[in-house]
């Protein structure tokens, strides 16, 4: 039996619709939700992602600002821009598009963003809050995966979840979210990575397998337990002479083969990527609501 397709596009649209009345309520209070995105250089994948964020803001009637900087911008100048955004009452969410050029210290940049405006959830303050199980802005891709599973009735409680990849953007926060002591979590989590030995023997035991390794079609059918839930975070361009653009997008999972083994699977595109954008919008609206609450209290 072919796996059920977990349609991130459909669920993301549901979330976007749910945000509209919340935004309308903010506008009534005189708060115009605003998101500022900083991008350095012209990386095509980053540019495409930033464009998607801008379009999502536009659809929701939110203020969107894209600050495009040269790849050669200095750390000092970047920090000055972030400092201004931190104190700008019209800006509720700040996002610095990663990865950054090698001469920019990523940790210093993420630490500089006001945690109350850190809608990407990458600042060490929000990461620490997440680890402690406290309320915080959660990284959008892992949180999107949690939301996608919840809305499809997939409960991780007591299940063995295996994550392939240990990045700060997906792997580590994904593990933290899955092991939290609350409804929709409570999984037993294993994290695999480039130094893991005999990885297929581990992935084969996963009830929930999450691939975030950045390697095209890395996960093969023989690495997947029968009836496992498979979440594919990867978006990779592979050359394809038959495609109009000369390439096609594939995930980190061999979709055609794995869908015959899994009970549920996310497609690429149309899966996790759409959820990431939706959760960013959710975080931005929440940041504006937090601001409105503080403003009214004052």
Which keywords apply here?
298 residues; alpha/beta; Rossmann fold; 6-stranded parallel beta sheet; 3-stranded parallel beta sheet; 10 helices; 16% strand; globular
Write structural notes for this entry.
The protein is α/β, with parallel strands linked by helices. It folds into two domains: 32-115, 3-Layer(aba) Sandwich (Rossmann fold); 140-273, NAD(P)-binding Rossmann-like Domain (Rossmann fold). The chain contains ten helices and eleven strands. Strands 1-11-8-7-5-6 form a six-stranded parallel β-sheet. α7 links the parallel β5 and β6 (188-192). 42% of the residues are buried. The mean pLDDT is 95.
Summarize this, please?
By secondary structure, this protein is of the alpha/beta class.
How are the SSEs placed, and which strands pair?
Elements: E1 4-5, H1 8-28, E2 34-40, H2 44-60, E3 63-69, H3 75-87, E4 93-96, H4 106-112, H5 124-131, H6 140-151, E5 160-164, H7 171-179, E6 188-192, H8 199-203, E7 208-211, E8 229-232, E9 236-239, E10 247-250, H9 255-258, E11 264-265, H10 272-297
Parallel strand pairs: 1-11, 2-3, 2-4, 5-6, 5-7, 7-8, 8-11
Antiparallel strand pairs: 9-10
Helix pairs in contact: 1-10, 2-10, 6-7, 6-10
